[in-house]
């Protein structure tokens, strides 16, 4: 590449011979970094490459720290879950949502218990209503094979 387009601070933007661009970079005690190799002529910038890499890593680290990991907790019911079991599982579900986890509640139908799918739906809707203060329903109960699944996400704290 005999010529490069030079951009950046402390330099007049324009097309320079490669040797001239390298000499300018040396003069400023910086590096000549190719930004866009596919352009005609290739675009280069005079900068401190080590500092650039350091700042890029720092930005990525900050972004990673800001992004939160979402965990999904599961709670399983049978179509004829009795009151005590329901209350116990509801307390766990509430705890999960307060911790900030997503909740996947499902009713598992074994064998012929699939004939009680309305009971399963009623159970999940009751759970959603009981957890209304700490979470909101992301997906209404849906029957997938032998499982009726519903997702609840935690409400944002104000």
Q: H/E order of the elements?
A: EEHEEHEHEHEE
Helix/strand-derived category reads: alpha/beta
Estimate the helix proportion, in percent. Answer: 25-40%
Determine the number of helices (DSSP H or I, runs of at least 4 residues): 4
Q: Going across the major beta sheet, what is the strand order?
A: 2-1-4-3
Query: What's the number of domains?
Result: 2
Q: Detail the poorly predicted runs.
A: none
Could you tell me the mean pLDDT? 88
Rg, Cα atoms, Å: 30 Å
CATH topology of the largest domain: Translation Initiation Factor IF3
Largest sheet properties: 4 strands, mixed
Can you identify the CATH class of the largest domain?
Alpha Beta
Q: Write down how many β-strands occur, each being a DSSP E stretch of 2 or more residues.
A: 8
Q: Assign the CATH architecture of the largest domain.
A: 2-Layer Sandwich
Distance between the termini: 58 Å
Notes on the protein architecture:
The protein folds into two domains: 3-63, Translation initiation factor 3 (IF-3), N-terminal domain (Ubiquitin-like (UB roll), Roll); 72-154, Translation Initiation Factor IF3. Helix content is 37%, strand content 32%. It has four helices and eight strands; from the N terminus they run E-E-H-E-E-H-E-H-E-H-E-E. It has helices spanning 18-27, 49-66, 83-99, 117-130, and strands at residues 3-7, 14-17, 31-36, 43-47, 72-77, 102-108, 135-144, 147-154. The strands form two sheets. A four-stranded mixed β-sheet has the order 2-1-4-3. It has a four-stranded mixed β-sheet with strand order 5-6-8-7, with helices on one face. A hairpin with a 6-residue loop joins strand 3 (31-36) and strand 4 (43-47). The longest helix has 18 residues, at 49-66. The radius of gyration is 30 Å and the shape is rod-shaped.
């Amino acid at each position: 590449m005999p010529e490069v387009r030079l951009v950046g601070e402390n330099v007049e933007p324009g097309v320079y011979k490669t040797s001239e661009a390298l000499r300018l970079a040396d003069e400023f005690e910086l590096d000549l970094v190719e930004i866009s190799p596919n352009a005609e002529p290739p675009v280069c910038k005079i900068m401190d490459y080590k500092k650039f890499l350091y700042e890029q890593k720092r930005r990525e680290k900050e972004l990673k720290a800001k992004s939160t990991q979402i965990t999904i907790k599961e709670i399983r019911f049978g179509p004829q879950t009795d009151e005590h079991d329901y209350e116990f599982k509801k307390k766990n579900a509430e705890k999960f949502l307060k911790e900030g986890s997503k909740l996947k509640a499902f009713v598992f139908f074994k064998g012929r218990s699939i004939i009680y799918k309305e009971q399963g739906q009623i159970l999940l809707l009751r759970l959603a209503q009981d957890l209304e203060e700490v979470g909101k329903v992301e997906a209404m109960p849906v029957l997938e094979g032998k499982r009726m699944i519903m997702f609840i996400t935690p409400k944002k704290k104000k």
